[in-house]
Amino acid sequence: MNVHTPPERTLDRATRNASLLSPYTLGDLELKNRMVMAPMTRSRALPGNIPNPLAETYYVQRASAGLIVTEATQVSPQGQGYIRTPGIHSGEQVEGWQKITRAVHKAGGKIFLQLWHVGRISHPDFHGGALPVSASAIAPEGEVYTERGPQKMVTPRALELAELPGIVEQFRRGATNAKAAGFDGVEIHGANGYLLDQFTRDGANKRTDAYGGSIENRVRLPLEVTDAVIAIWGEDKVGYRISPTSPFNSMADSNPLSVFSHLTEELSARKIAYLHVVDPVTAGGPARVTPILRKKFRGTYVVNGGFTADAANSAITHGETDLVAFGVPFIANPDLPQRFATDAPLNAADPATFYQGEGKGYVDYPAAA
Question: Which of 34, 61, 190, 209 is the residue whose CA sits 20 to 30 A from 334?
Answer without folding.
Answer: 190
